[in-house]
Amino acid sequence: MRILIILLLLSTAAQASEIDEALRAEEAGDYVKAATLFLPLAQKGDPVAQYNLGVLYVQNRVIQRDYSLALQWYLAAAEQGYAQAQASLGMLYESGTGIPQDYQKALHWLTLAAKQRNATAQLQVGQMYAAGLGMPQDYREAVKWYRLAAEQGNAIAHARLAECYAKGWGVAQNDAMAAKWYGTAANYASDERQRNRYLASQTALEKDIASRKATEARIEDEHKAVQAEAARIATEQAAVNQAVEDAKLKLAAQAAFDARVQAQELNNVRKELDDVKKELTRVKTDKERSRADQRSRLEAQMARRRAEINAEAARRRREILAEERRSKVEKETLAKTSKPEPAKPVATAAKPEPAKPVAAAAKPEPVRAETATTTQGAGKVTYPAKTELSDDELKHPLIRELQPPVGSLPGKPLIKIKQIEWSKKQNDS
């Protein structure tokens, strides 16, 4: 057993020396020697030899280009877990060069290689996620694989991260981070042209950042100026609004005050009107009471006057009757004592005229009075007593109210209003 192990170690050591020799020949450009050494080792199942033999078939160096044979040697090495072979096999399926394109197989082999920290495979997996080849497009997943490749110094992965930050793919847009990643990509560039390209992208981005910052600063200044102006306008508007509100409050207070004043004035006017009405009512009542009292007094006065007039008329009638009786007695006595002589009329200056009544609206009933008589002895004309009211009494307004209206039915008036003009002419004799 010990001898077997020793033989295996000796065989492995010899094979390793042959692989190293073949790799040195390939690096030196002696592709014939490299192919001669790789072929027997590949046929023995060495993954390194299998992978490199597949590379020679793809590169068309010494051996005629044959993608099918390259695919077989890549697959043989990839199935043994050789990461470089897995990455090359995946890229071959992705490009579809010389073989049918198959994104699912490409992603499978590339992912296996990427998990073994193969930077090329990690970069390629990120690009497939970014392009959505064989799966839905997912920039976040792409950025994750770009970072893994960038950690191993892959310049292209750095450039892809810079592009993602510049355009906001899978990460927040950040020009400063994009410029930083372009700078690190230039540091890891494999040649001068690639380095210059990355530096040019970084410079352009930095200029764009500076321009954008200047624009942002200008916009910020303008924004601050606009905000200051807006604040000033808002302050002025607030002052105007406050003034308007104060004016409204003042107007409302003035309106309320005016309303109270008007209400007070209206109440005062109403009170004055009520007082006037009360005063008018009182005056009317007093006037009516006064008129009633005056009327009552006047009626009493007229009643007394009427009674006096009636008493005077009765007295005069009694005097006339007494005079007539006395005259009759004298005549009878004279007739008995002497022969009667024809009686001579008593000379009178003029025959007395009856008094003419004063025209009135309604003809009043005349006051009865005895007619005038003459006495033979004295030759004296006797006049009846005055039974009418005086002129001052007739002018009293209440006397007029007591008279019946013109055109009313005839009847006995309350007071007999009649003026009699007295004839005071003496007899001629």
List keywords for this structure.
about 425 residues; mainly alpha; 13 helices; about 70% helix; rod-shaped; disordered N terminus; disordered C terminus
Quick synopsis:
By secondary structure, the chain is mainly alpha-helical. The protein is 70% helix and 0% strand.
List the helices and strands and how they pair.
Blueprint: H1 2-28, H2 31-43, H3 47-59, H4 67-79, H5 83-95, H6 103-115, H7 119-131, H8 139-151, H9 155-167, H10 175-187, H11 192-337, H12 391-394, H13 397-402
Helix pairs in contact: 1-2, 2-3, 3-4, 4-5, 5-6, 6-7, 7-8, 8-9, 9-10, 10-11
Could you describe the 3D structure shown?
The structure is a single chain. By secondary structure, the chain is mainly alpha-helical. 70% of the residues lie in helices and 0% in strands. It has 13 helices and no strands. It has helices at residues 2-28, 31-43, 47-59, 67-79, 83-95, 103-115, 119-131, 139-151, 155-167, 175-187, 192-337, 391-394, 397-402. α1 (2-28) runs antiparallel to α2 (31-43) and α2 crosses α3. The chain is rod-shaped and about 230 Å long. The protein starts with a helix and ends in a 27-residue tail after the last helix. The model is unreliable at 1-12, 346-352, 355-387 and 408-429 (pLDDT under 50).
